[in-house]
Amino acid sequence: MSVTEEIGIKQWWPTDYCDEVMPHPRSAPDDWIVPMPGEPGAFAIESPLVGQGGAEPTNIAWKHTRLLEGTPLKFFYYEYLGPAEITVSPDGEFTVEKRPPPDASWFYEASAFSDAMVSGDTLEEFVRDYISDQKPNQSRVVALGCGYWSEEKVFSFDIQNGEPVLTEAGSA
Predict the structure, then answer these.
(1) Separation of alpha carbons 27 and 119, rounded Å
(2) By three-state DSSP, how is residue 166 classified?
(3) Among 15, 58, 22, which Cα is nearest to 151's?
(4) For the chain, which terminal residue's Cβ has fewer other Cβ atoms within 10 angstroms, N or C?
(5) Cα 31 to Cα 20, 28, 44, 55, 133, distances in angstroms
(6) Residue 131 DSSP SS3
(7) Is residue 8 packed enough to be buried (19+ CB in 10 Å), middle (13-18) or exposed (0-12)?
(8) pTM to 2 decimals?
(9) Are 95 and 87 in contact (CB under 8 A)?
(10) Where in the chain are the domains?
(11) pLDDT digits (tens, 9 = 90+) for 27-80
């Protein structure tokens, strides 16, 4: 998964694509809607074919699932909120050096974001996983990235004047 670390930018995925291996996000739910190949006036949602092509966007094999008017589509977004910093001791105790943003609901080791990373939904969960993964023998200062994962958002698909339209229908 690759996300931008620019504060305040929402990055969207269809709910079904939110897993350990995810395609690159798009800037709005509408960006996942494309013309249906071979069917003028019809639209589809792009879906990555799991296990085909790899995780890089230029290598992903895509399939297209035709959408009918009124089809509900579910999405999540991620928003980077900013950095934080903690000192973690080998026994799992930690002190906050630079406070995380108040709405943060996901924490990850900033230096390892593009690799196999340690992350958690709370600072306590992050520290527990960090100790388990890194096994530090002395206290370490850890730079964190902090973000917010939205609740699932439901949209209704329609076609208006020949163009695809997604209308938010609420949260799941």
Answers:
(1) 23
(2) strand
(3) 15
(4) C
(5) 21, 5, 11, 19, 36
(6) helix
(7) exposed
(8) 0.78
(9) yes
(10) 10-76+151-171, 80-149
(11) 999 999 999 989 999 999 987 765 544 455 555 667 888 999 999 999 999 999
